[in-house]
Specification:
heterodimer; A: about 210 residues; mainly alpha; 2 strands; elongated; B: elongated
C-alpha cells in the first residue's frame, strides 16, 4: 500500500494548496486532542485534590481568609472551565502555528500553513489568522466554505493573515475514485435532464 | 535412595501434575460452557422476538428453558434434518441412559425390600453366620478403602490443582518475560506497529486528497460552475516550504 512516488517520477501535489476536507479533518483531530487534554487535566486536578483533601484545606483557609471563598466558588464553576478551555484552545493553535506552522492534527493529515511570501509563520500571522477563524465562523461558516470556491483554496482567515495551506507530503489523489465519482455525478445529471425533458403522456406528471 | 521409591515418587509427581491440569481444565471448561450457554440463550431470545412468531412458535415461546431454543433452531433450517436427527439422538440416548440407571436403582431397592422378609431367616441362621461375618468384614474393609480413597482424593485434588496452577503461571511468566526481553521481538513489534501506523496515515491522507477534489467537483457541478481540473501553481517560495515530514517508522528508526 505504501507507495514510493519519487522513484516513479510521478508529479505529486506536494506544495499544492490543500483542500477543504483535509483541513476539516485536521481541525477535527485537533479538537479531539484539545478536548482530551482538557478533560484529562480537569480529571487530574479533581482527583489529586480529592486525594490530598485539597477541598477541605482550601475550605479551611476560606474560613480563615474570607476572600478565598469567592475564589473557590469561581474555581468550581463552569465559567472557570470555559475560560480554561478557551485559553487552552487559543494557546494550542497560536503555539503550534508559530512554532511549526502546523498543529498536530495538520501534521497527521500532512498539511502546513505558509505565509504568502514564504518563510516562517510569525506570531502576528498566527494571531490575525486566529481572529480570522472567528470571522469565518460567525459568518455562518461561509469563510471556511470559501476554501471550496477559491482558486487558491484560501478561506477568509487565510486571506486576512495572508497565508496558504499546502500539502507537505507526496499527495496523490485516487484517480479511479475520482473518475468513478465523476461518472456517477454525470449519470445522475443526465438522468435528471432526461426526466425533465421527457413529457408524460397525459401532459402532467403523476 | 531406593530406585523404586524414587521412580514411584517421580510418577506420583507427574500424576499430580496431570490430575491438577485436568482438574483445572475441567473447571475452566465447565465455567466457560455455562457462560456460553447463557450467552446462547440470550442471543437466541433477542434474535427471536415475540412479534415475529407464528401461532406454533408462540406455544413454543411459552415453554421454559432450552426446549424453546432447540425448537427455534430446528425451525430455522429444514434441510439440516439429518443433522438434527443425530443431535437429538445423542441427547436422547444420554437421557435414556441416566433414566435407565435411575430405574435400575429403584428396582434393586424394591427387590431388596420385597425379598428381605424371606431372606432374613436364611442369613440370620447359625449356619450362615460365619459367611455373613466374613461378608460383613469384607463390606467394612471395602467401605474403609473407599473412604480412604475419598480422603486421598480430597487432599490430592487441592494440592494437584495448586501444582498445576503454579506450573502454568510460571510458564506464562517466563514466556512473557522472554518475549519482553528479546530485542528482536521488541524491534519486530515496534516496526510492525509503526508500519501499520504509516499505512493508516497514508491511506487517510490519500482519501482526504481524493475527497478534497471530489467535494470541489461536486459543489461546482451543483452551482454550475466551470470544473477546475488543475489548481494554479503556488509561488516557488511557498512550495519551498513543503519540506518532507517524517513518517512514524523514520522517527523510530533514527531515535
Amino acid at each position: 500500500m505504501t507507495r514510493n512516488h519519487s522513484s516513479r517520477q510521478v508529479k505529486t501535489l506536494r506544495g499544492q494548496y490543500a483542500g477543504f476536507i483535509s483541513r476539516l479533518l485536521a481541525f477535527i483531530i485537533d479538537l479531539i486532542i484539545i478536548n482530551f487534554i482538557c478533560l484529562f487535566t480537569v480529571w487530574m486536578i479533581s482527583t489529586v485534590s480529592l486525594v490530598i483533601q485539597g477541598g477541605s484545606i482550601l475550605h479551611k483557609l476560606g474560613e480563615t481568609y474570607g476572600q478565598i471563598n469567592n475564589f473557590l466558588t469561581f474555581l468550581s464553576s463552569p465559567l472557570a472551565y470555559s475560560i480554561f478551555y478557551v485559553s487552552f484552545f487559543v494557546g494550542y493553535h497560536l503555539f503550534f502555528w508559530t512554532i511549526a506552522g502546523q498543529t498536530p492534527g495538520k501534521a497527521i493529515i500532512g498539511v502546513k500553513i505558509v505565509p504568502l511570501k514564504g518563510g516562517r509563520l510569525r506570531l502576528r500571522h498566527s494571531i490575525i489568522r486566529y481572529i480570522g477563524y472567528y470571522i469565518s465562523a460567525f459568518s455562518f461558516g461561509l469563510g471556511f466554505f470559501w476554501i471550496i470556491f477559491d482558486d487558491r483554496r484560501m478561506g477568509w482567515h487565510d486571506k486576512l493573515a495572508k497565508t496558504h495551506v499546502i500539502y507537505v507530503w507526496d499527495a496523490m489523489p485516487d484517480e479511479n475514485f475520482l473518475v468513478t465519482s465523476m461518472e456517477r455525478i454525470n449519470k445522475k445529471r443526465e438522468a435528471v435532464r432526461s426526466m425533465l425533458k421527457k413529457k408524460p403522456p397525459g401532459g402532467s406528471i403523476k | 535412595m531406593d530406585f523404586r521409591s524414587e521412580r514411584t515418587s517421580k510418577l506420583r509427581k507427574f500424576t499430580r501434575l496431570v490430575i491438577g491440569a485436568l482438574s483445572l481444565g475441567i473447571d475452566g471448561i465447565t465455567g466457560n460452557i455455562d457462560n456460553w450457554e447463557q450467552s446462547a440463550v440470550e442471543k437466541t431470545n433477542s434474535s427471536y422476538s415475540k412479534e415475529n412468531f407464528v401461532e406454533e412458535d408462540a406455544l413454543v415461546f411459552s415453554e421454559t428453558g432450552q426446549v424453546e431454543i432447540y425448537n427455534q433452531l430446528i425451525q430455522d433450517k429444514d434441510q439440516d434434518t439429518l443433522k438434527y436427527l443425530f443431535i437429538g439422538l445423542i441427547f436422547d440416548i444420554q437421557e435414556q441412559i441416566s433414566g435407565g440407571f435411575h430405574r435400575f436403582d429403584l428396582l434393586t431397592r424394591r427387590a431388596g425390600m420385597f425379598s428381605k422378609p424371606y431372606l432374613k431367616p436364611i442369613y440370620s441362621s447359625k449356619l450362615a453366620s460365619p459367611i455373613m461375618k466374613r461378608f460383613d468384614r469384607l463390606v467394612t474393609r471395602g467401605e474403609d478403602q473407599v473412604n480412604q480413597w475419598i480422603e486421598l482424593g480430597k487432599k490430592e485434588a487441592r494440592f494437584d490443582k495448586a501444582v498445576a496452577e503454579a506450573a502454568w503461571n510460571e510458564r506464562i511468566d517466563s514466556s512473557v518475560s522472554f518475549l519482553a526481553a528479546d530485542a528482536e521481538i521488541q524491534e519486530l513489534v515496534q516496526s510492525q506497529s509503526a508500519n501499520l501506523l504509516d499505512e493508516v496515515v497514508e491511506e487517510t491522507r490519500e482519501r482526504t486528497v481524493s475527497a478534497d477534489n471530489y467535494l470541489e467537483t461536486f459543489i461546482r457541478t451543483i452551482f454550475k460552475r466551470k470544473q477546475r481540473w488543475e489548481l494554479p501553481e503556488p509561488p516557488q517560495e511557498v512550495k519551498a516550504q513543503a519540506e518532507p515530514i517524517r513518517k512514524p517508522t523514520e522517527i523510530i528508526k533514527y531515535r
